[in-house]
Amino acid sequence: MANTTDAQERYHDLLTFLKEQGVPCAACDPCNCGNSCAQSLQPLNGDASFRRYYRLRLTHPCFVKLCAAHGITPKFGSAAQYLGSIIVVDAPPATQKNREFIAINRLLSHCGILVPTIICADPEHGFMVLEDLGRTMFADAFPGPRHLAYYFRAMVELTKIGAMPRSADEQDQLNALRSSAPDAQKVLLHHYELDAQDFAYYAKEVPPFDADFIAFELSIFTEWLLDKTLHLELTASEQEMLTRTFAFLTQECMAQPQGAMHRDFHCRNLMVTPEKVDNPIQMALAVIDYQDMVKGPIGYDLASLLYDCYSVIPEDERSMLLSFAYESYCAAGRLDPKQVSLETLERMVRICALQRHIKVLGIFNRLYLRDGKSGYLKDLPLTLDYVLHNCDYFPDMADFKAFLQRHVVGKI
């Protein structure tokens, strides 16, 4: 973690960036940068990374002037839509994927996904100014009886990513399918406007969720839960069991149809806009925290949402949402219904949920032990419950479940 001096220097560099970009930062008293300041930077709650976010209040005329100066057209630029502020991001380049964030922001926008407009950025030094899409996370938005309607909206955005075309020819085919589909089926298919730059980035720069990647993720469980939290000394048979279990999960994940994968598609990485919307039909969902996108198994993002570590979906609703995703992927040609049944997709999702949540058991402990972020410890019981529950569907996971019951249950 950075010391106080480093943090102060970093903040000074951030203010310098804002001045250079013509963003009024309100850091000077009296002002010496020629800007008419609105209000000081207000720190926002951080996420699980080393990024820092600030909200900066800005009048609408100043916002319009700033966007025009950078040749940017915001998503919500009218006086009626503008929320009165912008988001300032401090993302240290040593630890954060800033160039990936910018490239994937562009790619997702061309997929018809609402992402924050980047007004200006210095990826080399890790500073950005984004359009403010509001304060309402999906996790906090939905009232009880409309819970399922909100999740169906989220599933539409998820399948836009999962069905993302990988070439211009594939895009033409998908757009033609949607154009000729009956109106009732258009929600299952999506319109895409990717260009050569997007396709090249996806093909060459988006990493595969391959065996090495999966092995690294599962090692987080071993290191940060078993070793550094529980201080377990594994027997030879237990180590062999873990090796066998992780090989099973790796093989199953890699055997699934592969495509674009957000990798953290859950209720805390979706924003509801406009704020305080009363009807989910009137809302838009913005997707954030997408810089870790990979090419991976079709079930993974579904597992992130349907087995969300921060929100529980009733089993009957989970089944309905999964059916929607199945129909959408079949309509787009991502799944062949003659070869992959709904039950098979459900199995794929459970496999991905197991791999994901075993990793997360380690990550939540790492966030506490290494980064001093204790807030995620309260989410460990639900995450562990998901693992134990989904182990029951696979005989190959029986020994691992017994291991968890012996060493982990009741101790985290």
The level 1 CATH classification of the largest domain is Alpha Beta
Radius of gyration: 22 Å
Can you tell me the CATH superfamily of the largest domain?
Answer: Aminoglycoside phosphotransferase (APH), C-terminal lobe
Secondary structure tally, helices: 14
Work out the helicity level. 40-55%
Order of helices and strands: HEEHEHEEHHHHHHEEEEHHHHH
What does the secondary structure layout of this molecule look like, with pairings?
Elements: H1 4-20, E1 42-43, E2 52-57, H2 60-69, E3 85-90, H3 98-110, E4 118-122, E5 127-131, H4 138-141, H5 147-162, H6 168-180, H7 196-204, H8 211-227, H9 236-255, E6 258-261, E7 270-273, E8 284-287, E9 294-297, H10 300-306, H11 315-331, H12 342-369, H13 380-391, H14 398-407
Helix pairs in contact: 5-11, 8-9, 8-12, 9-12, 10-12, 12-13
Question: How would you summarize this macromolecular structure in one to three sentences?
Answer:
The protein has 14 helices and 9 strands.
